């Protein structure tokens, strides 16, 4: 099949997905969790007063109600010590005799900044190592560069999605999200390598076939494998997202989004990029 | 009777499976107590159940990162001060009697930190109050109560604190005696302590003096003579290790460093139990979907791959118990994810097999070719995943990369997953196919050319 005939279509599809994400990233950014900003989060159970009243008593810590259900209220605030929370709870005791603190989490702002720096380091080191590894494994820089570009494509889709999710649904980006992003880097490259590997193999076998036909053939031959493998991962992630625990729900979602774009990009971004590369930097031009 | 190579490998796999299965069995199945072998290899004791280590987010408990204020400590003394503090706080943590509590030191730029994990602590406030105190060292005189009868020796019943405290001590150091080079600990007092120490030694010649840290006696040397120089040496039958440990503890009293809470997390145990239940359900459903898909799409081959996948699960859990991997919620997510990825190499091989069949080869040849040719892409693709896995895991503890436990837990399960899945996806499945698979379903297809 002549997949590469519709080159511009693939880039347009990518653009349609990427631009709202980039717009959202620039405009709204990501919604960082207290792991990045520093601050506290705690859950109170058995409160009788209205959530607003309770929130009011934590006013000096710029508290926000994060969620409330039958069991309790989760409040996010500036950095606060557990002692201070207990003190405020004492003042609430007359109206709420059984009020109790269950979860408590606090993170100093310094730690948050450090996490951002370490994340940036990890991203840069990963990208560089993957670029080097692929370029060496395929003995040509273009494979490394195109694979890493496709990887950035997936990263931006993932970041953009979470920027939108953060803006509209209030979903936060935490340390696990960072882990998901780094995992997706490897997923994206993993799939791309399978396609490139086939291109490499075919180019050894058929020396006289032009490069675009080679790519077409490679894409055709690896399509079933790409889809099937992603499907098995998607089954797992979907089950984890829908039925898994609260703690890892959005982690699963991030991996799910990444896996889907990773599958798309290995065929419809990484391979077409090679065609574009050949067109502009190819030896015969 | 001789075994062929695939049969030998199959036998090996069977033995490995049985062993792994034995390891992952819980202590009890319903009312049935699983019998255990009386067998030990090093630290591993097979006579009881090897436990799956659970992380704090599953067990519940308290995690605290303490910032250590080294402002008043000379930079050359800082790392020994951190060690002393670890020792002191470690002992306080032990007072709680929590099992598997951990105190780790961490260095981040110029910041010195202690990370504490206290599983199962239900009153975090009380724990923090105790842990957050600055270490207090005091010199004290032991009080002996004479025995009831004359033949009973006197017992130590308490201490009378003196006015000489850790604040008066400049530093403690390991020294070696000039005569026999035996290790000893030297004490250097500040000017404020010189006089007090001289008085104390003068009054107690021939008697013991106790040095208490947080009320706990570190050592009880006997005074030999009055010391007015402010320099004392504690001798005894120390090993170098013991002398070092004593000097570290004495320094903790001499160099009291204030600590503050940098981050704190209390995790109720119920949350973890609930998450585990949900993760197990999700995992079971995901796994059955993967198996169903593999069988529906690849037929017999898919079934054999599914057997490989189940073995993957058994091997992985056994390895988690043996290493041991501390299982956290992200770790479980990593494991489940790796189950989805484990069939990746199978799919690569099977697709390759189909191609070879389409090219008109006999199924036996096609099978061997498929494994050989798929290896290149399997190798390259998995190396890429291992690279990012290692960056997440940060095995060398580089301070410019993440050191968070949850991230590392995930990365470790991911990396282990890759290696085990390569084993089950290639060695195990290949042998199972060689022994059990007879290519029929594709042989009657007419050969077609590629493209």
TrEMBL record, chain A:
> What are its GO cellular component terms?
plasma membrane
List the membrane topology term(s). Multi-pass membrane protein
Q: InterPro entries annotated for this entry? A: SecD/SecF_arch_bac, SecD/SecF_bac, SecD/SecF_CS, SecD_SecF_C, SecF_bac
Transmembrane stretches, by residue range? 7-26, 119-138, 145-169, 175-196, 227-244, 250-277
UniProt-annotated location(s): Cell membrane
Residues of the signal peptide: none
Task: Please list the GO terms describing molecular function.
Answer: protein-transporting ATPase activity
- To which protein family does this belong? Belongs to the SecD/SecF family. SecF subfamily.
Protein name in the entry: Protein-export membrane protein SecF
List the source organism: Candidatus Collierbacteria bacterium CG22_combo_CG10-13_8_21_14_all_43_12
Q: What is the lineage of its organism?
A: Bacteria, Candidatus Collieribacteriota
Gene for this protein? secF
TrEMBL record, chain B:
Q: Does the keyword Acyltransferase apply?
A: no
Pfam families for the chain: SecD_1st, SecD_SecF_C, SecDF_P1_head
Which InterPro entries does the record match to this protein? Acrflvin-R, SecD, SecD/SecF_arch_bac, SecD_1st, SecD_SecF_C, SecD_SecF_C_bact, SecDF_P1_head
Q: Which residues cross the membrane?
A: 285-315, 322-343, 410-433
Q: Where in the cell is it found?
A: Cell membrane
The record ties this protein, via SUPFAM superfamilies, to: Multidrug efflux transporter AcrB transmembrane domain (SSF82866)
Q: How does it sit in the membrane?
A: Multi-pass membrane protein
Q: Which residues form the Protein export membrane protein SecD/SecF C-terminal domain?
A: 260-434
What does the record note on quaternary structure?
Answer: Forms a complex with SecF. Part of the essential Sec protein translocation apparatus which comprises SecA, SecYEG and auxiliary proteins SecDF. Other proteins may also be involved.
Q: Which HAMAP family match?
A: SecD_B
Family as reported in the entry's similarity comment? Belongs to the SecD/SecF family. SecD subfamily.
The name on file for this protein is Protein translocase subunit SecD
Q: Which organism is it from?
A: Candidatus Collierbacteria bacterium CG22_combo_CG10-13_8_21_14_all_43_12
Query: Lineage from the top down?
Result: Bacteria, Candidatus Collieribacteriota
């Amino acid at each position: 099949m002549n997949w590469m005939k519709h080159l511009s279509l693939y880039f347009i599809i990518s653009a349609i997905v990427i631009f709202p994400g980039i717009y959202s990233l620039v405009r709204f950014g990501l919604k960082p969790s207290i792991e990045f900003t520093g601050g506290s989060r705690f859950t109170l159970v058995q409160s009788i007063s209205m959530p607003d009243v309770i929130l009011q008593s934590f006013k000096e810590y710029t508290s926000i109600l994060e969620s409330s259900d039958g069991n309790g209220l989760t409040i996010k605030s500036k950095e606060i010590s557990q002692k201070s929370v207990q003190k405020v709870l004492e003042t609430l005791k007359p109206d709420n005799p059984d009020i109790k603190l269950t979860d408590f989490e606090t993170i100093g702002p310094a730690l948050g900044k450090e996490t951002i720096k370490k994340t940036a380091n990890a991203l840069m080191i990963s990208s560089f190592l993957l670029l080097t590894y692929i370029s060496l494994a395929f003995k040509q820089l273009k494979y490394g560069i195109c694979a890493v570009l496709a990887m950035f494509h997936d990263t931006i889709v993932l970041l953009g999605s979470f920027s939108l999710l953060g803006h509209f649904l209030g979903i936060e980006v935490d340390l696990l999200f960072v882990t998901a992003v780094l995992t997706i880097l490897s997923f994206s490259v993993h799939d791309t390598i399978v396609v490139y590997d086939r291109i490499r193999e075919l180019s050894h076998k058929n020396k006289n076939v032009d490069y675009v036909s080679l790519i077409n053939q490679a894409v055709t031959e690896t399509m079933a494998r790409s889809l099937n493998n992603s499907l098995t991962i998607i089954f797992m992630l979907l089950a984890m997202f829908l039925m898994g625990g609260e703690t890892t729900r959005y982690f699963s979602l991030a991996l799910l989004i990444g896996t889907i774009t990773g599958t798309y990009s290995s065929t419809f971004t990484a391979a077409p990029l090679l065609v574009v590369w050949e067109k502009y930097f190819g030896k015969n031009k | 009777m001789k075994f062929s190579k695939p049969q030998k490998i199959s036998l090996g796999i069977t033995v490995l499976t049985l062993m792994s299965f034995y390891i992952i069995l819980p202590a009890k199945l319903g009312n049935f107590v699983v019998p255990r072998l009386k067998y030990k290899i090093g630290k591993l004791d097979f006579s009881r159940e090897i436990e799956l280590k659970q992380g704090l987010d599953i067990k519940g408990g308290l995690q605290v990162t303490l910032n250590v204020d080294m402002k008043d400590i000379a930079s050359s003394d800082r790392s020994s001060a951190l060690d002393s503090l670890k020792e002191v706080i470690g002992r306080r943590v032990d007072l709680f009697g929590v099992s598997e509590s951990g105190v780790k030191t961490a260095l981040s730029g110029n910041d010195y930190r202690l990370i504490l994990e206290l599983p199962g602590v239900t009153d975090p406030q009380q724990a923090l109050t105790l842990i957050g105190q600055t270490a207090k060292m005091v010199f004290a005189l032991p009080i002996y109560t004479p025995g009831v009868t004359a033949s009973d020796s006197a017992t130590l019943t308490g201490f009378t604190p003196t006015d000489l405290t850790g604040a008066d001590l400049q530093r403690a150091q390991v020294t070696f005696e000039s005569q026999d080079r035996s290790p000893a600990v030297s004490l250097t007092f500040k000017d404020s302590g010189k006089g007090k120490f001289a008085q104390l030694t003068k009054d107690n010649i021939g008697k013991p003096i106790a040095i208490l840290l947080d009320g706990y006696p570190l050592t009880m040397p006997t005074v030999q003579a009055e010391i007015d120089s402010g320099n004392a040496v504690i001798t005894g039958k120390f090993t170098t290790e013991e002398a070092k440990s004593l000097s570290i503890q004495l320094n903790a009293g001499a160099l009291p460093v204030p600590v503050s809470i940098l981050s704190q997390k209390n995790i109720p145990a119920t949350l973890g139990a609930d998450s585990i239940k949900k993760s197990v359900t999700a995992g079971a459903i995901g796994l059955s979907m993967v198996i169903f898909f593999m069988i529906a799409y690849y037929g017999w081959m898919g079934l054999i791959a599914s057997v490989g996948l189940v073995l993957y699960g058994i091997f992985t859990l056994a390895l988690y118990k043996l290493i041991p991997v501390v299982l956290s919620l992200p770790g479980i997510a990593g494991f489940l994810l790796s189950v989805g990825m484990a069939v990746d190499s199978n799919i690569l091989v099977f697709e390759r097999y189909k191609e070879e069949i389409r090219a008109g080869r006999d199924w036996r040849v096609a099978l061997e070719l498929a494994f050989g040719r798929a290896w290149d892409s399997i190798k390259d693709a998995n190396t890429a995943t291992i690279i990012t896995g290692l960056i997440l895991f940060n095995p060398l503890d580089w301070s410019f990369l993440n050191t968070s436990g949850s991230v590392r837990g995930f990365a470790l399960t991911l990396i282990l997953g890759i290696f085990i899945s390569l084993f089950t996806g290639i060695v195990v499945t290949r042998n199972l196919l060689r022994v059990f698979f007879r290519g029929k379903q594709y042989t009657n297809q007419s050969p077609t050319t590629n493209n």
